[in-house]
Amino acid sequence: MTATALRPARAGAPREPRHRRTFRGRNALTILGFLAPAIVFVCWFTYFPMLQGAHMAFRDWDLWDLTSTPWVGLANFATILADPVFPVVAGNTVVWVVGSIVPQLVIGFLVALGLWRRFRFRGLYQALIFYPWAVSGFLVGMLFRWMFNAEFGVVNDLLMKAGAIDAPLPWLADPKLAMVAVIIANVWYGVTFFAIMILAALQSVPDEVLEAAAIDGAGTVRRLFSIVIPYIWTTLALTVLLRAIWTFNSPEIIYAMTGGGPAGRTHIVTTWMIEYTQQGSYGLASAIGLAVMVVLFVFCAFYLTAMRRVNQR
Amino acid sequence: MTMLREGSSRVTTGGVVRVTGLTLWLVITLFPLYWVVVTSFKSPGSINRWPLEYWPSEPSTANYTDLFATSAFGTFLGNSLVVALVAGATATLIALLSAYVLARFEFRGKGAVLGAFLLTQMIPAFIALGPLYAMLADLGLVDTKPGLGLVYVAMCIPFSTVMLRGFFENMPDALEEAAMIDGCSRLGALFRVLVPVMAPGIAAAFIFNFVNCWNELFLSVVLMNSDANKTVPAALNGFISTFNIAWGPMSAAAVLTVLPTMLLFALASRWIVEGLTAGSVKE
C-alpha cells in the first residue's frame, strides 16, 4: 500500500500525489475504461437477473399460468415461515454449516502444519492432497453417493471388514445417517481449501520470532497458541467466513447425494429452494433465495464487525 | 505440531508423526478417486456383486465404450472445453483490467465496486436462473455456447479480480513507470511490462476460472439442453434423474470429467497457493 501511495500520477511526474487519490483528472478515463467491462458483465448477467429474481419473491408465480403474476407482498415469505418443513430445514442448515466447517478447519489446520516445513516428497504430497479442489461439488456428491451405497457401497464393506458393523447400513435412506454421510463428503471436499489458505498464511510467520521463543524455553504447544495462531488469526477468521458463505449457499453435494431426502431430513435452504423451483413455485423459491441473501449479508456484517473489535483489542 | 521445531532435516519423532498423519489424510483424500477409477474399469456384471472387488478381476473398458455408445459424451467434453477455455480466458482478461485499476488507483466508489464483487458470492445461483433464462431467450442465446459463455464470464470476474489485484499490489510501480517514461501508454505498459512478469499469477487465475466453468452445474443444466450443445455437467446430471443409476458408465464419465482439471491443478498447484496468498489473505 505504501508503494502505491508514493506512485506518481503520470510518467516522470512524482508531484501532486493528490491527483491519484481522486476520481478526477486524467486518470478518470483510465479508471472508467478499465473497470467498464467487468462492471457491465457483472451487472448484466449477475445483478440484473438477481434483482428480477428478488422481485419474483413478491409475486405469485404459478407455473401453470405465467400470464397473471399478481403482487402479493410478503405472502410468499409468510408461506415459507408457516411451512412445517421450515424449522427442520433451518436446523439442518445450521448443522450442515457448523458440522462441516469445524472438522474442515481442524483437519485443514493440521494438514497445513504438516506441509509447513520442508521434507522429502513435500511437493508430491501437496499436489495430491490439494486435488479435491479440482473436482466439482456435484461430482464429489456422486462419488460419495456410490461409496455410501447401501447394497454395494465400499464404506459398508470396509466397516464390516473392520468389525465396526455387522450388517450393511442404509446410509442415505436413514434419517439420521444421511446427514452424517453428506457432512462427511463435504468435510472431505472442504479440508483442501482450509489447508491451502492456512498454509499460505503460515509461510508469513517469521522464523526469527519462533526461534526466539524456543530459546526462551517456549514449548511446541505454547509456541503454536501464543505465536502462530495469533499471527495467522485474520486468515483463519476470513477463511471460516468465506467457507461458511459457500457452504450455506452450495446445494451441489446434497443435491447429488440425497436430493434433500429421506423425507426432507437433509434439506438445507438451498436444496429446499431447488425443490420449489422444480415444482414450479418460483415465487416461493425466490423468497427463499432472497432470505438467504439477507441472512448471509447480516451474518457477514456481524462477523466482520466482531473481527474488527477483536483485532483492535 | 512438532513441525514448530527448528532444523527439520534430522529424523525426529515429530517428523515421523507428521509424515504419518499426512499420509493418513493422503490415503483418505485419494480413496474416492481410487474407487471411482476401479469401478470404471470393472466389467458391467462385477460392479453389483459381493464380495466387492478392490481390484477388477476382469478388467474391462466396457463402461467407457458403453458411455460413448449411449451418449454423445465426446461432444459434451468438446463443448465443455470450448466454453471453459473461451469464457475462462475472456474473464481473466477483463479481470486483469479491473484488478489493475483497483490495485493502482484510489478513487471514489472503489469500496463500492469491491463490495459489489464480494456480494456476488452471497447470491444463491438459483434465484437468478429463471430471469437469466428469460433474458437469454430474448437474445436468442438459450442452448448456445456463446450464451452460456457470457454468463460464465460474469460468474468468474469477481473472484479473479480479487485474486489478480493481490498480484498487482505485490508488483513494484517502478516497472510501469519506466515503460511509461519511455513512451508507452498505460495499456501498453500493462501488457508489455507487467503481464509478462505476472505470468504465473495470470495462469493461476485462468486455471481457476477454467475449472469453475468446467465444473458449474445448475446454469449448464438449465441453459443447455440439446445434445449438440450440452456441456459435461448437464450430461452428468442426467445420470441422477433416472431411478437406477448406471454406476459403471457414471464412473467412466466421472473419471473423464475429473482428469483434465486434476492435471491442470497438479501442474499449477504452487501458483494457485501463491495467488490465493496474494489475493485474499491481505488486508
In short:
The complex is a heterodimer of chains A (313) and B (283). By secondary structure, chain A is mainly alpha-helical.
Which CATH class of the largest domain in chain B applies here? Answer: Mainly Alpha
The greatest inter-chain interface is formed by: A-B, 117 and 107 residues
Averaged pLDDT of chain A, please? 85
Share in helix of chain B: over 70%
Number of strands of chain A: 0
The shape of chain A, in one word, is globular
Q: Kindly give the count of domains of chain A.
A: 1
Elements of chain A, N to C (H/E): HHHHHHHHHHHHHH
Mean pLDDT of chain B, nearest integer?
85
CATH architecture of the largest domain in chain B: Orthogonal Bundle
Query: How far do the termini of chain A sit from each other?
Result: 23 Å
> Which class best fits the helix and strand makeup of chain B?
mainly alpha
Topology (elements, then pairings):
The complex is a heterodimer of chains A (313) and B (283).
Chain A: H1 2-6, H2 18-21, H3 27-56, H4 75-82, H5 85-116, H6 122-129, H7 137-147, H8 154-161, H9 177-202, H10 207-215, H11 220-249, H12 252-257, H13 269-279, H14 282-312
Chain B: H1 13-40, H2 44-47, H3 62-70, H4 73-104, H5 110-119, H6 125-138, H7 145-169, H8 174-181, H9 186-197, H10 199-215, H11 218-223, H12 232-240, H13 247-281
